[in-house]
Amino acid sequence: MDYAIRDIFEYIIALVNEFAKKFGLSDKQAYNYIRYHRGISFIEQNYGIIHTLDFNEAVESVVVYCRRTGGKL
Q1: How many Å apart are CA 2 and CA 47, to the nearest integer?
Q2: What is the 3-state composition of the chain as percent helix, strand, coil, each rounded to the nearest 5?
Q3: Are 12 and 50 in contact, with CB atoms under 8 Å apart?
Q4: Quick one: 47 exposed, middle or buried, by C-beta within 10 A (0-12, 13-18, 19+)?
């Protein structure tokens, strides 16, 4: 299924914001961390599934993915 780029971007922004809140980071710090650990690509590639999850579950999915790629948060 094709999704609008705008929907994906808005979702990424919201998810980054929730990630930042969870770890006490600024939005920029959270975005940079997630991007560095290839989490943005993970979200884009799995948008069809991840956007149906509760935000807490979605954030946790990104946390787990980033840890698999060397993240320490």
Answers
A1: 10
A2: 75, 0, 25
A3: no
A4: middle
What is the full per-residue pLDDT of the chain (73 aa) written as tens digits? 789 999 999 999 999 999 999 999 999 999 999 999 999 999 999 999 999 999 999 999 999 999 999 999 9
Q: Which residues contact 72 (CB under 8 A, 6 or more apart)?
A: none
The kind and range of the H/E element at 17 are helix 5-23
**Residues listed for the chain:** 73
Handedness of CA 35, 13, 61, 7 (dihedral sign): negative
